[in-house]
Amino acid sequence: MVNRDSSVNKTCLHCLNGNIPGHVKPSKPSDAGNEQRVKKELPKLRFYTTRAKYEQKKDSQEDTLRKNLSFGKTSTQSSTHDRWTADRAVDGCLNQDVFSNCCIHTANTIKEVWWQVDLGSLNTINYITIYYRDAYERRFAGYQLYLSNTTDWTQGNLCYEDTSKNLAEVELIVTHQCPYVARYVVVYNYRSYPKRHEWYDDFVILELCEVQVFGCPIQKHGYGNCNKNCSHNCYGGNCNGVTGSCFYCLPGKWGDACDQDCPTTCKTNTCIPNNGSCTECKPGRHGDVCDKYCPVTCNGTCDKVSSYCRDCVFGQWGGKCDQECALKCKDCIQTNGSCIYCNPGRYGQTCDLYCPTNCANDVCDRETGSCFDCKPGKHGETCDLDCSVLCEGLFCEKDTGFCSECKDGMHGYRCDKPCPAGCSSNRCRRYDGTCGETNTATDSTYTDNRTTVAVLAAITCIFLVAAIVLFVCMLRFRTKAKRGQGKEEEHYTNIDQAKRNVPNTYEMTQQRNDKN
User: Fold this and answer.
1) pTM over 0.90
2) Topology given in CATH for the domain delimited by 32-218
């Protein structure tokens, strides 16, 4: 079952492909012998619209002005009932009586049917007129009209789907505008359960009496004779077969014949084909043809229609970025002016709170107000605590309040303990109170000594491991050497024994003499 989306897809059909579904075997006729209808020649068309009403024209001049692309072309269908083959829908006969042999007839008791005509090549189609068997609206209702560039019409474009709500709305002579480029035209129908409407026939049958396809070969136009060339600015060289208007323009062109240049202010030099309005503007521009400048406070681009800025320069906010961020804000959100960053000395969601006075450089955390660092002599989360007066230069750690260095004669984390008596220059190490030249130098020396010891220990371990590995390797080598020497001695012993078993020349001569 094909996709039955009733929306008309207006994209071009240049890239469709696939295969036609296989034929369905015809079933035996059930009602053809009981049907008798009066042959009737139908009136010609005077004008066309989708599901249009038609007027009879007295003379045949209109017929000569229209070019029926489907007449006599190869046609196929999903199944055939009796003698009513697919070619009868393109033979030029408009009689709607199936017994006049002017109509097709697919097999009975089928739930899905299709009929297709191959136009032989790609054509620019203007409209399609269908003549269906008279008085059989129940069978025709719900049909779909497809156009495709390949035999796989299921991947083509749905030009029309019948959605009649009652029997009276179904038209048996109907014309549909289908402004596409295509090679294949397909009429398709189906029945699902439950049926869309109760008045639908239970089984679907196609009884097309004529399918006329009007248009011109691609790159041609002209009412009836198709003797005019489409504009060379038409994309793909294709245009409306009657008016010659281009379906699409080459980049940078617009107008019916795509002979006008898009404004140079359009982004990528692209504009709307029917009016020349830019699809997008170059940065810094707005307006239909992008001939107006964005506000100077926009950070690059603005909306093409409203001129609202997509982003603001630093310190501005508003639709057109024409309002300044509050003085307490370092920058703010474009839509409501809320602060993104606070100026020094401020914190809070709206930057309306002041940082503690003892924060270094007047900078604090925007959310909590805690200082990142303190001014000299202060410590604590908000720098509201005093460092010990015994700290050298009143410098102490922000979080703990421990002195960075102690004044002469004192030691301890808070420099609240006196150095032992007799220390040279009345100085001792801050961490343990032992005498030393300076607090800082002693601490540093201690730290350096610990580092040196650690490095030496690591080097010693490395050498120890290397010595063990070397010793093991030497043992293995000596073991292998002994085994090899034993095998060699055994080899030479065997050779000597063999030599002993071989008689010498004297013994051999003596043995011969004894025998003689």
Assistant:
1) no
2) Jelly Rolls (2.60.120)
